[in-house]
Amino acid sequence: MTATATSARSDLSELGRSETALRTFLHGLPGVDQVGAEQRAAQLGTRSIKTTAKAQAIDLAIRMVDLTTLEGADTPGKVRALAAKALRPDPADPSCPHVGAVCVYPAMVPYVAEVLRGSAVHLASVATSFPSGQAPLAIKLADTRAAVEAGADEVDMVINRGAFLAGRYREVYDEIVATKQACGDAHLKVILETGELATYDNVRRASWLAMLAGGDFIKTSTGKVPVAATLPVTLVMLEAVRDFRVATGRQVGVKPAGGIKTTKDAIKYLVMVNETVGPDWLDPDWFRFGASSLLNDLLMQRTKLTTGVYAGPDYFTLD
């Protein structure tokens, strides 16, 4: 890290001590050109890749999937089966890579941990009163600690959108800092719930707020509201992590989640990552897809490329 970056990081770390300083900084960020962002995202979405490059992109996308189930009807048996699929997505093809992580509710973490123990697949748990974020801080922190103690090495927290939209930035900042501390060695993904933030400017501000408070990843959505991940929103978040690394020397990951269902969708996001932030982020350590149905489509397309035969959707287990 350069001396300039070290100085900038030190200066930015002081922002959280003052509501006024935090507000001044966040509202001083350059505004997002809505038309430009949407046109850029649409343009990148038209790119196509073929043959060998497509095969490589599919395998990379599989490695980036956070295979997710977040339903009230989740059972130990269901999440154990999901964890087994994460390890061997295509049992008929041992060359198929494993996914990045399995993401479940805190109560399901111990059952997933039984299956994943000793593997390279991460265990992620949502926490902090997911998906609303509307609970006292003590409960949110207890939720986080319980997930980590049960075996989660990644925590997906959700910010208090009500506080953010009301301009109580210090409150949101302090909650992220406290949650990061409660995570211990586990990585913290901060869910912005971009579908409720209303503007791209708010997405940019929330992204910076999450990074300033120590988030290891910024994530679009819980998947529990009508508007989840979109290409323009993800573009704004990618630009934020790029600019944050320039300013501080610290790299932060990005996770679009919700509504990404096809290989075509996933490749659009990978093209956007490459064109916006470069190859440093084309790695599961720095970019993930929060998805449940995406994996099966990736597997079907992979089978078609490797065998020439298109496997139907019932060929792979449903999640």
UniProtKB/TrEMBL annotation:
Enzyme class: lyase
SMART domains to which the protein is assigned, alphabetical: DeoC (SM01133)
Enzyme Commission number, as recorded: 4.1.2.4
GO cellular component, one term: cytoplasm
A Gene Ontology molecular function term of the record: deoxyribose-phosphate aldolase activity
Catalytic activity: 2-deoxy-D-ribose 5-phosphate = D-glyceraldehyde 3-phosphate + acetaldehyde
InterPro entries referenced in this protein's UniProt entry, alphabetically: Aldolase_TIM, DeoC, DeoC/FbaB/LacD_aldolase
An individual GO BP term: deoxyribonucleotide catabolic process
Pfam families in the record: DeoC (PF01791)
NCBIfam families: deoC
Family of the protein in this entry: Belongs to the DeoC/FbaB aldolase family. DeoC type 2 subfamily.
Protein name per the record: Deoxyribose-phosphate aldolase
Organism lineage string: Bacteria, Bacillati, Actinomycetota, Actinomycetes, Micromonosporales
